[in-house]
Amino acid sequence: MAQTWHDLLFAHWPVDAGALRSLVPRELRLDTFDGRCWVGVAPFHMSHIHAHGLPPLPGLSRFPELNVRTYVTLDGKPGVYFFSLDAANRAAVWAARSFYRLPYFYASMSVEGRDTWINYDSRRCAGKAEFRGRYRAVSDVLLREKGSLENWLTERYCLYTVANGKIYRAEIHHQQWPLQDAETEINVNTMASAAGITLPQSPPLLHFARKLEVLIWGLRELKS
User: Fold this and answer.
1) Are the CB atoms for 118 and 9 separated by under 8 Å?
2) Helix count (H) and strand count (E) of the chain?
3) Measured on CA atoms in the order 202, 147, 213, 209, is the torsion positive or negative?
4) d(Cα 99, Cα 114) in Å, to the nearest integer?
5) What is the average per-residue pLDDT within 162-171?
6) Hey, what's the torsion of the CAs at 20, 146, 180, 196, to 10 degrees?
7) How many CA atoms lie less than 13 Å away from 214 in the CB half-sphere?
8) How does residue 17 score in pLDDT terms, banded at 50, 70 and 90?
9) Does the pLDDT at position 89 exceed 70?
10) Domains defined for the chain, CATH in brackets
């Protein structure tokens, strides 16, 4: 599966491992940086979505998505674990739930560029998960060095999910994230609390990426 991601915000907060342990399957080890877990809320929009070797399908090739994530490892391979993924396309939600076993939800969403800002609204159609705010880049692109927190948060090339007691991994390929420092004005953010996570009151660590082309392989079941 090929996708192009646009105007992505990484908003990250440190969270104690004890607060996440019951929310992440025991089969996956919580990954930490300097002893702390991190939870990310990431709004963006996608385009040119298509299966390898096939053209994009009308009505399915572009839509907004917003995910809530943390970071895990298995057998020494770091990856991403998603608490939720909201998307503004019913067919894509069905397909991702069916073929990737991921917790996708249908949401009413809008994305609008205005001056240098990205205005982003998302409201899940079932439940109280909502994000409303705006964000923008405030620096030039800087590729973050290995060993830095920014690199640790973003340079992860697989996702994990657990369904019916089985562990799955999907490989992800892309160039290094072209990160820029960011600022945001968030009016409403209940995305993490909808997953049972209480974010700290401290300001989040913010990064922006204008564009990234991504390849995602299918799920592969791992031996327990």
Assistant:
1) yes
2) 3, 13
3) positive
4) 36
5) 95
6) 0
7) 22
8) very high
9) yes
10) 2-222 (2.40.400.10)
Token pair in block for residue 86? 């909201």
Predicted confidence (pLDDT) per residue in 26-83, tens digit? 999 999 999 999 999 999 999 988 777 766 666 667 899 999 999 999 999 999 999 9
Residues with Cβ < 8 Å from 69, sequence gap 6 or more? 39, 40, 42, 80, 81, 82, 83
Q: How far is CA 221 from CA 7, 83, 100, 190, 202, in A?
A: 32, 19, 11, 32, 38
Tokens of 21: 């342990």
Both tokens of 183, joined, read: 């600022």
Contacts of 166 (CB under 8 A, 6+ apart): 221, 224
